[in-house]
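Support case: flavin-adenine dinucleotide complex. Customer-provided input:
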Amino acid sequence: METTAIRGRLNWQAARVISVSWETASVATIELEPPDWAGHRAGQHVDVRLTAEDGYTAERSYSIASAPGEPLAITVERLEDGEVSPYLAGELRAGDELELRGPIGGYFVWGPSDGGPLTLLAGGSGVVPLRSMLRHRVSTRSGAQARLLYSARGWEDVIYRDELGQYGDGIRVSYTLTRSHPPGWTGHTGRIDSALLAEVAWPAGANPLAYICGPTSFVEAAAAGLVGLGYPPERVKTERFGATGGR
Ligand SMILES: Cc1cc2nc3c(=O)[nH]c(=O)nc-3n(C[C@H](O)[C@H](O)[C@H](O)COP(=O)(O)OP(=O)(O)OC[C@H]3O[C@@H](n4cnc5c(N)ncnc54)[C@H](O)[C@@H]3O)c2cc1C
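Agent response - structure generated as follows:
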């Protein structure tokens, strides 16, 4: 059993693209159907591999956007000068095949038995695995209270905006917009700092569990901020997406 599970996880397989839908002007959610998929946990990722005609390959990781039990989906932000993301969020169409392996990761994961309350901090596309956790929390009717603080460049860059606006009881979503904001914006602006964290995150005394995901510089600043507020480092889980991203 275990051997099969490990083999399935490590093997590359060609998944069929079921749909591509746009979350923002540069961010697409891709629903996939891998031939061999035993399910995933909220917070895990897959590796995607593109192969050029001359055999050159490029691999990147993408968090799983869907909740456990839902069809596999990833959400990709197109970086104009990127090698892989412009293909995924630009060229890929329903009916195409995409090579992937996974699910991968056992640390940055959440399930109802992990409890709460949850402090979730997202920088840009770092919201993707946190969205999987929130959907999982809703579908399992977990009582874990969650507070999400989402840092985006502008309101038009907010991924899953409608969905995040619809979460009700027990899930509070706050935004901070770092570059531009709509007229009349009454939410937060600027980068995450200790004052903002003190205002929106669970106080350390509530014994919260924190998940932080986004560009490396965002994750480091946010994690240091929570530890500064008294969160024990072992209650602060982080996932770094790579470059600074300029948020
Ligand atoms: C565990 C994990 C999960 C990830 N999940 C997601 C996800 O859900 N959605 C998603 O869109 N991306 C995610 N990423 C980032 C993704 O793997 C790629 O790094 C990203 O798509 C850029 O790849 P690229 O080939 O287009 O750009 P590259 O050709 O690698 O880089 C192009 C330029 O963009 C810069 N750059 C590279 N990565 C980033 C970044 N993350 N943010 C800003 N600038 C960057 C580079 O410094 C370079 O200047 C994840 C990364 C990891 C490690």
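The pocket of flavin-adenine dinucleotide is lined by residues 45, 60-63, 75-77, 79, 81-85, 125, 128, 215, 239, 241-243, 245 (CB under 6 Å).

Case will auto-close in a few days if no follow-up is received.
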